[in-house]
Amino acid sequence: MQAADDADQVLFHKVHKGKKLIENMLSEHKAISWLDCALHCQRYVDGFCAGFNYKSTMNGNEVNCQLTVAQQQRDGVIEAKTKNDWAFYQRQYIKEPCSPSPCADERHGKCVVNSDGTAVSCKCFEKYEGNRCEIRIFDDPNFNFALNKPTSQKTYPNVGWKAVDGNSNPAWSSGSCTQTQPLITDPQWWRVDLGEEIPVSRVVITNRNVAGARLGNFAIKIGNSLDNDGLSNPTCAGDNLSVPTGQTKTFVCTPWIRGQYLVVQSHVNDLLTLCEVEVYAYTMKMIV
Cβ(220)–Cβ(259) under 8 Å? Predict the structure, then answer.
């Protein structure tokens, strides 16, 4: 059990299966659970409660929670004398039981303290496994990792999201195609942050149904670096890619490329326009 106590945390753990205390008691209570008994100990104000004795079953008006000043001795024997079948919980102060966390990353799992308060472990979130939740499971080849993820682009960054809104309509009038600033004479780029490292297997891009030549020569960059705006990351499917006007085309990364950022880098001295960009992962388990 953990509970706030000034600047520290309090942890109770079961150290002894024993019997009913007959000395060193502070008070006795009826408790509905060992957690309830622990709260009695933590909140005791007439002395220092070093631990408590708890019995999970009780008869009639029998008390089942005993607070005690007893400390655990060096040889591991509890000082308090006992009688009958109870369990003794010792109080410990620690700054933070989950620091450092047993999880590889707080986005992968949550640190939990077991019911006896004797250990911590990492409870994995969905799509993660392993003792430290360090293994990411990619099991859906049709899941679009780019959908509604944060985007940016060299110019007009506030409209980059239109390329990941789930609408692949190639008509400009649909309001779902992005573009960079017009009358630009240097090549433009567009980038999506996938939120985590993905083993990217394929990228699907939809071009506008007019002025399609603007997407006539580009590269796809994938990786974890934002140096040079992500343009120095590895290239997927070649360096001179194109999508026909008004069409959707799939680009396969062979082999798959691991990365959090995907950049569409235009080689054309004109604005860059994209109606949809979809990113799919290779089906696998990956240590992250």
Answer: no
